[in-house]
Each structure stands twice: as C-alpha cells, then as structure tokens.
Amino acid sequence: MNKIKIITRLNQREMTAREYISYCKNLLRNIKAVFPEMYLSILDDNDVAYFFKNDLSDFGEENLYKIIMEDKEIVYYNPDKNNEDLTVDSKTWSPFSSLFFLKEKREADKYSVSDISIDISQGSNDINDKIAVAIIKFSDNFTKRLNNSILEKIIYCLEKTGDLKFAVAISDNFRSEVKIKGQNLWIGYLTYFAHKDISRLFKDFKGIEVTETELGTLISLSNKFYLSEETVRKALAIRDILAEKGLMNL
Questions:
Q1: Within this chain, do residues 138 and 155 fall inside the same structural domain, yes or no?
Q2: Same domain, yes or no, for 68 and 40?
Q3: How far apart are CA 2 and CA 14, in angstroms?
Q4: Do 155 and 60 belong to one domain?
Q5: In a designed cystine with 125, which of 14, 30, 108, 221 is the match (CB 3.0 to 4.6 A)?
Q6: Gap between the Cα atoms of 82 and 6, Å rounded
Q7: Confidence (pLDDT) at 115
Q8: Which domain of life is it from (predicted)?
C-alpha cells in the first residue's frame, strides 16, 4: 500500500521537561480536535497503553514518566547539580521524545493497531541542534480515508506551534522518486514551507494548488495519493524551482 506519512522540520527550542509536556499537550489538543472521536494514548515502560482523559486534564507532570521516553544513558541537567535523573525541571542535550497514538477504539492491547501515531522530538539545549521533528504516520485502514482536507488540518495544527519550518505528506515510494543528493527536503503530495512569498513563483504553474497560510505556503499536487508520472513530474519541477532559491535544504 502507498502509505502516507507527514514528515516535519521544526525550529528547535530549549525546554525543560515541564515545558516540553505543555508543548506536546497544546499540539495534541489541536490535532485531537480534528479527530474528536479518537482516544489519545501512550505506551508505558511495560508496553501497557495509558489512555488520557478526553480533555487531556491528566496530560501533565503527574505523568512525566509516561509522556517522556526516559533514556537511562542520558545525563539530565537539573537545578540540583547532583541529580542526573529526569525531573520536570530537567534539561537535556538530546531532545525529549514521545510517541503518542490516536485510536478510534479504546483498546489497551499493545498489539492493537493505532489509526494515527505521532512521534515528537523537541527541546534540546544543544545550541548546535537547530532542528526538531514531528512525524505522523497512518495505519493502512486510515490511509484509505485520507484526503487533502485531513492532511491540511493536521499541518495547520503543526503550524500553530509557531515552529513549523517544513512539512511534507509523502510515501516512501514517492520520496525515492523525488529525492536528490545534496537536498534534505522533498516535494510530496502536500508540501508546506514557512515562506509566504514563494506562491508568486508558481502563479503560472498549471495543475497544482498553492495556498498562503497564516505563516507559510502550502502546495498541493493532487487530492489523489498514488504514484504517477504526472505527480512525479510536477514534484520535480517544483523542487527545481525552489532549489534555485535555496529552499530545498534546512
């Protein structure tokens, strides 16, 4: 199956664990509003699903060790210099990471398939680490229901963080057709850049839809997500135009 995922690049922010939890909560609340019928969960250290309340009132520091994947090999920086363990006040050179799941059925079985998975890495205090990421994947069944409207709503949720630099809805097969050595970004079925002025580059480009958003530009190749010579041709042409402006690398 031509499985779609959303790959993003975010501005890196230095955060404490408490700030990271708040950051994730705000993003997930917005995404959950797109799918109000779904349940948000996370797996604990024993691979048991923990389901958050619908209003996410329990998505806070009381569930620190559920929300953040603690890495025992990492030294966490705390106000208490002698404490190297993860606390709500911790900072780290490595991004905090979490993997969340949205499911239409409240199933605690760790082997049950989630409809949507949301992988977030953000919050490093390493000044050389400029990029954070969020990757959103969809199950086979949910992929069949995907359309531009759903993907756009998710990308708008990511844009609300104020950190979204780039997002692309793409499949592995499509990415293999459009990637090129020396570039670390790709044009997909739906592509977002945090540049409002690039829409003018495509005013005479036929067969695509270009939308200026609050903070950037969204480019849509088609509402049908299958690999074709036409979609690849359009993606390559757009890539070359943006590469000339130095926009295909972060």
A1: no
A2: yes
A3: 36
A4: no
A5: 14
A6: 40
A7: 94
A8: Bacteria
* One domain, residues 37 and 129: yes
pLDDT tens-digit profile of 100-137? 999 998 876 666 779 999 999 999 998 777 789 999 99
Is the domain of 141 the same as that of 152?
A: no
Query: What is the C-alpha to C-alpha distance for residues 242 and 31, in angstroms, rounded to an integer?
Result: 29
For CA atoms 241, 244, 248, 250, give the dihedral sign.
negative
**How many other C-beta atoms are found inside a 10 Å radius of the C-beta of residue 242?**
21
3-30 pLDDT tens trace: 899 999 999 999 999 999 999 999 999 9
Tell whether 158 is covered by a domain. yes
Q: Do 91 and 185 fall into the same domain?
A: no
As a three-state string, the secondary structure of 95-132 is: CEEEEEEEECCCCCCCCCCCCEEEEEEECCCCCCCCEE
Least confident of 14-18, 193-197, 214-218: 193-197
Angle at 123 between CA 90 and CA 170, to 5 degrees: 145
Domain end among 124, 145, 166: 145
Domain limits at 55?
A: 13-145
pTM: 0.94
Instruction: Identify any residues that bridge with 4 across adjacent strands, giving them in sequence order.
Output: 171
Long-range CB pairs of 124-127 (<8 Å, 24+ gap) are 124/12, 124/14, 124/92, 124/93, 124/94, 124/95, 125/14, 125/77, 125/91, 125/92, 125/93, 126/93, 126/94
Strand 49-51 and strand 39-43: the pairing is antiparallel
Same domain, 129 and 228: no
Q: 121 and 154: one domain?
A: no
H helices of 35-77, in order, are 64-67
